[in-house]
Amino acid sequence: MKVKDNFILKKIAGSYMVVPVRTRAADFSGIIKLSESGAFLWKLLEKGADREELIAKMLEEYDVDEATAAADIDRFIAKLREADLLE
Questions:
Q1: Cβ-based burial of 41 (10 A; exposed 0-12, middle 13-18, buried ≥19)
Q2: How far apart are the first and last CA of the chain?
Q3: What are the distances in angstroms from CA 73 to CA 9, 22, 29, 32?
């Protein structure tokens, strides 16, 4: 799984934002605000991480149980798919 090209993650005034660039700027109006954990997952998705890798990395990085991590990641992925941000 990977985020589509021409979206970049920026930290602006302490907040993480996904901003469309180049050709995406014309197709996608707006900015997506992410939490710190959302930005963490986004960075992994930029490298092509799959669901299992996202869960494993989330468990390493945050104090969360596997069921909660999996459910949160599934919601995050669903929102990215809904916004057409994943390949």
A1: buried
A2: 7
A3: 18, 28, 25, 17
Residue 85 to residue 37: CA distance in whole angstroms: 17
Distance CA 4, CA 12 (A): 21
* Residue bearing tokens 């995406």: 24
In this structure, of 17-26, 48-57, 77-86, the range with the lowest mean pLDDT score is: 17-26
Judge whether 87 and 72 are in contact, CB under 8 Å: no
Token pair of 18 as six digits: 């996904």
pTM of the model: 0.86
Q: Is the pLDDT of residue 25 over 90?
A: no
Q: Give 29-47 pLDDT, tens digit per residue.
A: 667 899 999 999 999 999 9
Per the DSSP assignment, residues forming a β-bridge with 10 are 17
Contact 8, 21 (CB under 8 A): yes
